Amino acid sequence: xxxxxxxxxxxxxxxxxxxxxxxxxxxxxxxxxxxxxxxxxxxxxxxxxxxxxxxxxxxxxxxxxxxxxxxxxxxxxxxxxxxxxxxxxxxxxxxxxxxxxxxxxxxxxxxxxxxxxxxxxxxxxxxxxxxxxxxxxxxxxxxxxxxxxxxxxxxxxxxxxxxxxxxxxxxxxxxxxxxxxxxxxxxxxxxxxxxxxxxxxxxxxxxxxxxxxxxxxxxxxxxxxxxxxxxxxxxxxxxxxxxxxxxxxxxxxxxxxxxxxxxxxxxxxxxxxxxxxxxxxxxxxxxxxxxxxxxxxxxxxxxxxxxxxxxxxxxxxxxxxxxxxxxxxxxxxxxxxxxxxxxxxxxxxxxx
Length: 352
Description:
The chain is of the alpha/beta class. It is built from 13 helices and twelve strands.
């Protein structure tokens, strides 16, 4: 059987969500079925993957020139092209059409509220957005909720199959959680993740320790916000590497993520790997993959977040059960499981 060559158009040595997704795909695709091509960039901080059946096109300085070369080579020698980023060379679609190559994209955000303003600013109008996504052979949404909402808001047509992202569950160590003492939020942009609600909860529960991992992304000073509220039970860890985060999660029992606008927040799966269930709002369809009081907690408003925390303090058995089920949730989304869906998509495209 001839192997299918797939070009994953991301920089697999950079820590951006789409790049990391390509890195995971590169690692987990079956090399007996697929030859994998991807890119690295001279400024990347991660190691460049070296594996059987993998070819990495290295992009040098200046990036604009070298990326043009990389995209051209990747498309030329591949059967199927995955384009996770909306910024790529102008010639990509004409070249795909000229060579008869198949392509696909994943929609990874719910385009409403602030996100809708951002994408309209990028594409000028809704018609350009529709035309962009219809230029791919196939468009997939990473949650069913996202598919529904983006069709309602922008008439973006997605394949009826949902293409979920995965997680490497073995990257985290899980231990049973019983007594609620420590709560965490993990967010690279704390400002947009409901930080006021997180601080509200830390004030309401002074007996608990609250931890912040990430940054304010220059929009707020987390240290100043803690100081002006006189929060002695809040610790700001800034950015943590994987080892440091894994160590911290060993003493955490609950991940509070009070964001109102998300796509499919992978951090919910990552904390679940460590047996740390998440407490989230329902706004972005989190009930699609998380069941309230089974493997996490899904609520509508801040008062309900308070109720959940209060119940967890009073009922260690509930925390223990939900923690155990959170690990099972993470394993059900392990890349070793989800990669099969991606492989089917690539194989189907190659046969068109």
